[in-house]
Design goal:
Order of helices and strands: HEEHHHHH
Number of domains: 2
Shape: elongated
Number of helices: 6
Distance between the termini: 74 Å
Structural class: mainly alpha
Number of strands: 2
Radius of gyration: 26 Å
Strand content: under 5%
Amino acid sequence: MNEDELLQNDNENDPPTIKVTDRRKFASDGTPLESGSVTNEGSKPKTAPLKSEEAKQTETKPTTDTGAQEASEPSSDTPERNIAHLPRDFSAFLEGMYLEAMLYLGAIPDPRTGETIEDLELAKYKIDLLGMLQSKTEGNLDSEEKDRVDAVLYQLRMIYLEKTKSIQL
């Protein structure tokens, strides 16, 4: 079927109908979908979309392939996380970069495993990224944000220099 046939209608007053087939393998919440389970013609859906709880209840799981079934189920040792309440601003971004650098400097333990990681190459990379961010945002930050970036970079650089034995503190 070519494009002209697809958009052609018998009635001039009706809008053209277009068939859309959703080929995604997973729903937006991560649950597996059946192949080709969502089909939408035109702009009017035939049925209302299922809510996530209803989708989980009506989902069919394969019984012959246990490996696929285990892979689709969340691990019991992985805690459920709700990150909707976390702030999405410059300070939160800066804090995340700071904590990653501190993690790679071995200054704080990994929150998932409790083990201390020391990867000075990755720490230097994170510190360099923050330095680049500092230079690229120069003149665009308010005084509090600028002071925070300066303090974070100073602290990370001093810890890095101490770890690499470049200086003694």
